[in-house]
Amino acid sequence: MNAIILVVDRLHAGYVGAYGNSWIETPAMDRLAAEGFVFDQAVIDSPQLAPLYRSYWDGLHAMCGQGTARGQADRERSSLPAMLSATGIGTTLLTDEPLVADHPLAGDFAELIRIDPVWEVETADGLEETHMAKCVVEIIDALESAEKPFLLWAHLAGLGTTWDAPLAFRETYREEGDPPPPKSADVPNHVLAEDYDPDDVLGATQAYSGQVSAFDTCFGALLECLEASPMGKDTLVVLTSSRGFPLGEHRRLGPCDDALYGELVHVPWIVRFPESVEASPGAVAGARSQALVEPADLWSTLIRLFGVDHVPRSPTGKDLMPLVRQEIDSLRDRACIIGGEVDRAIRTPAWFLQTNASTRLFAKPDDRWEVNDVADRCAAIVDDLRHTQRTYEETIDRGECLDKLSPLEGVLLEGLE
């Protein structure tokens, strides 16, 4: 088996057709979803790339770096690329993000392909001139020279660094009577004033939507090249994002302070499996799961699919295949997210609690983008979730497996009737 892991930074789940968007054209991503498996409730464990990639490559929750578990894990396991390389699997990291290329675990890949990040910010005359298109060409070139079996991990920062798609892409989303969309390729990054002009958000939304469509077109070309290749039928394809992109929600336009709201932490995660991966009768193309999944699960799943034996179990990550085969419908009853020094969030099937200088509570899954804060009406739930969050973090700090946590019950799991 081979695997391509494509992590597209700042891809907003709400701007992908497979996740409910009906007005942005994303046929390539939607096709991947129709042929594969969609995780509807994927959340990152940190918006900071260093701990997030430790989750991807070491199978550890981002919180592990806050306590003693990191040192213990170093003694017990090697990274994902190191383990795969040791079994004869070719490992390549391709990225235009220096923070990923310079990550302490990036050196465990057998090959590192650095793509120069964008410095000059202007829209392109044609799609082939965009930074995203150039990155996808690099991916295709890497695939053509790859020797089976292989893992190609590509992290693309383009959606968060430049919106350089030709202006025609953003004009597609301009309706009659709308002001012209902005012509700059600059990526906005500021908190909106309370009396902000809605046209500013509209223009940014049009520009971002055009950029998503441009990426989707490039992604479609990548899929076509893969399917035309002899290795295509035996290659796992994973498309996900390391962080979303706020587009006016909660008065943020761009990453800003990386506030832990859904537009940032809820990410797309789509997997298309090769023919060599066995599936039960229940695992059909186009299936979806509402289970809470997080980055360390990718580590556990890839280790299993590549057949790496005698690996210490991740204290946080879980194999996704039982979900895919519909043998179970849930992996965990809570997912915790760490931001800055005091930024924390916890997600259960029924609730999303965000805490920093203040506390906000939102009912899930109905309040998808956290519009209605009900913290002042559900004080007992807030207290219980705070306690659950502390216990979670303390368990990780001790280096213990999260399976030891008592399962959630009642209103924390099922919500209010």
CATH class of the largest domain: Alpha Beta
Please summarize the sheet with the most strands: 9 strands, mixed
Any idea what the CATH architecture of the largest domain is? Answer: 3-Layer(aba) Sandwich
Q: Radius of gyration from the CA trace?
A: 21 Å
User: What is the total domain count?
Assistant: 2
Mean pLDDT: 92
Strand tally: 15
- Per the CATH scheme, the topology name of the largest domain is Alkaline Phosphatase, subunit A
Derived from helix and strand composition plus strand pairing, the structural class reads alpha/beta
Helix count from the secondary structure assignment = 14
What share of residues is helical?
25-40%
CATH 4th-level superfamily of the largest domain: Alkaline Phosphatase, subunit A
- The H/E string reads EHEHHHEHEHEHHEHEEHEEEHHEEEEHH
Note the gap between the termini.
46 Å
Strand proportion, as a percent range, falls in 15-25%
Unreliable sequence segments: 67-75
The outline comes out as globular
Describe the overall structure:
The structure is a single chain. The chain is α/β, with parallel strands linked by helices. The strands form 3 sheets. Strands 1, 2, 3, 4, 5, 7, 9, 10 and 11 form a 9-stranded mixed beta sheet that branches. It starts with a strand and ends with a helix. The longest helix is centred in the middle third of the chain and has 31 residues, at 198-228. It contains 14 helices and 15 strands. It has helices at 27-35, 49-58, 69-76, 80-86, 98-101, 131-145, 158-161, 167-171, 198-228, 262-265, 296-305, 321-324, 379-397, 411-414; strands at residues 2-8, 37-43, 90-95, 111-114, 150-156, 190-191, 235-240, 252-253, 266-267, 269-272, 287-293, 335-338, 344-347, 351-355, 359-363. It has 2 domains: 2-331, Alkaline Phosphatase, subunit A (3-Layer(aba) Sandwich), CATH 3.40.720; 333-417, Arylsulfatase, C-terminal domain (2-Layer Sandwich). The protein is globular. Mean pLDDT is 92; it is low at 67-75.
